[in-house]
Design goal:
This protein is of the alpha/beta class. It is built from seven helices and five strands, in the order αααββαβααβαβ.
Length: 157
Amino acid sequence: MRLRHIEVFNAVMLTGSVSAAARMINVTQPAVSRTLQHAEIQLGFQLFQRVGGRLRPTAEAQTLYPHIERLFAQLDEVQRLSASLKAGRGKGELRVLTVLALSYEVFPRAMRLFREKHPSVRVHHEALHSPQIISSLVLQEADVGYVFSAVSHPALV
């Protein structure tokens, strides 16, 4: 499948119709229909059956879709990382993430001590779940994150 096929396939799966998919990705209905047709020819099987004027995903389409969803999640991460890199790091700013339990008592105490030594540093804090903290650190949306268990990720030290 080509990237355009994947984009159209995803839009149809999300919206359930060619016309709604066309609106979603800002193209014409005939363009969506042609792209779906080309994708099916290239794949060698149907992605959708037309039933009562609606598109119903085939078993093959339903098997492909979780992989397409993961691909779009990864594309979203690329966009988030790009935005983070574009924004850059503000001089004198620190972005800190903690699990919720640490944000009530431990983090405020640590901040009091930090502010005594670094009064001009602007600190942004957010409490998240551990997987969200890891994701944000990998995408460089935060400078430091605190979780309860050590996490192994190739992009983190």
